[in-house]
Amino acid sequence: MIGAAGVTPILYSFRRCPYAIRARMALAAAEVRCELREILLRDKPSAMLEASAKGTVPVVVLPDRVLDQSLDVMNWALGERDPLLWTEEPQEEAAALLRDNDGPFKHHLDRYKYSARDETLDAHHERDQAAVYIARLETRLVEHAYLTGDRARRADVALFPFVRQFAGVDKDYWQHAPFPNTRRWLERWCASPLFERCMHKSPPWRPDDEPVFFPPPG
Ligand SMILES: N[C@@H](CCC(=O)N[C@@H](CS)C(=O)NCC(=O)O)C(=O)O
Predict the structure, then answer these.
(1) I need a surface site. Which of 40, 111, 164, 202 has the fewest CB within 10 A?
(2) How, if at all, do strands 34-38 and 10-13 pair?
(3) What pTM was computed for the model?
(4) How many domains does the chain have?
(5) Based on the domain organization, do 177 and 96 belong to the same domain?
(6) 108: domain range?
């Protein structure tokens, strides 16, 4: 088993980051044991920057390579073990959803979030632009309980942390937005035991600390 014999992968993570959440969800589903190093984005450990100079989380350091894209971490973890069969999904549909999530949706989501402290940004405009993507998810979720069918797959896991972030910007708007199925879908994910495990709190890592492991016991 990965992580069992002195080759425990190291996971640099930030609890609230949606990219890191999707990676942790896959690592937890696969029960891939990592040494968790929680970071502060404003004070990144030099060991992390030595592994991956671009300075984003998540980063997984393996004995022979470094994974510093969240989707690569998901794919690697689920390649080790995929007990929930998340990777059995319509590949092109899933890829299109992911591309538009990580591209235009995330772009407008960030601007929506930051509009509170940047008056050059128009919160309603950015929210409505981001909501174009949510409306696409809603159309799918009217048909099925999950984005690509009747059970959860990788696309659901990779996307819900971003929808969660969107929902959190203005909770009142979200509760009344015309996306009841997306709301239910998000609530199901946020209430799941796997998500709870992934959101376990850890203090920021310091080099002298005793190792902390992820996933925590479930
Ligand atoms: N394409 C990367 C994006 C990861 C990313 O942007 N993570 C954010 C946190 S949510 C980050 O680390 N930002 C660096 C910073 O804010 O300094 C991935 O999929 O892993």
Answers:
(1) 40
(2) parallel
(3) 0.96
(4) 2
(5) yes
(6) 91-194
